[in-house]
Amino acid sequence: MKYVVTAATGNLGQTAVKELNKLVGAENVIVIARNTDKATKLFLNNEVRHGDYEDKSSMIDALKGIDRVLFISSQPSDKVDRATAHANVVDALKENNIKFVAYTSFPDAQNSTTPLATDHRLTENAIKEAGIDHSFLRDNWYLENEIGFLQSGAANHDALYWANNKAGWALERDYAEGAAKVLTSEDPREIYEFAGKTRTYDELGKALQEATGNHFAIKQISHDDYVKSLEEAGLDTPTAELFASFQAPIDSGSLNKESNDLEEVLGHPVTPLVDAIKEVLAR
Ligand SMILES: NC(=O)c1ccc[n+]([C@@H]2O[C@H](COP(=O)([O-])OP(=O)(O)OC[C@H]3O[C@@H](n4cnc5c(N)ncnc54)[C@H](OP(=O)(O)O)[C@@H]3O)[C@@H](O)[C@H]2O)c1
Is residue 263 assigned to a domain? Predict the structure, then answer.
């Protein structure tokens, strides 16, 4: 059985490849990357193939002779919109009669109203329409997204946020291990809502106080004041607005999805939040 990880050079992909190597042996794990130089340096024991989601023929070639695919969603790009790039991947999966695909999606992708879910819903639908056996790995929020908040507390500065509501933060390596386990599972389910325990920013801040031993204030401020605080820290306005927008799916409740799926698939608890924070801050 031959396994592939696409977009393997990203943070999630790198850990997923390591996990798959442990589970099935590196000789059975092929890496697809748009930047093969980067991939060759990262993956010394895996076959590396070139595949760019924006170039369908490269994906058709890269997927030849493969049985199971971990299809990692890409980042939005200016050149080709992400839904189209993902549709190229689905066409390439179909063309190669791939037996099974696990796709990294978005929480409750079929019903979610946040704009971030749109590409994922379209990609899920394209996979279903293509008739390929699949699992949708609906990853909640990466703890790594909160690096600014975490570093503020670590420096004993106020930890600021604007979003109400909760997110199911977990380390990317926990999501990656879950993805590898689903990909190698004999009887995968169609949908996994992967998440840590759901928490508010205030709860995240308290865990950060425990992880750092610091006694900074945890403050909710308005969205506009949050943007201003980022500008005062040196960001230009578009970047400050972009960073602030990362909290919008939390504020809208789109990530407030309690689920034990990740823990069940891992076969052990998700990394406890205080330990996970220490790990991110130590990098
Ligand atoms: N749930 C969450 O909290 C959350 C947060 C952020 C992102 N995400 C999603 O999860 C995915 C994985 O996260 P990550 O941390 O691993 O992201 P990342 O480190 O930014 O990696 C993104 C990966 O996508 C690859 N890629 C981008 N465009 C591509 C294309 N056209 N063709 C082929 N590969 C392409 C990149 O290749 P290069 O190495 O060549 O750039 C890289 O390997 C992201 O891409 C995004 O869809 C989820």
Answer: no
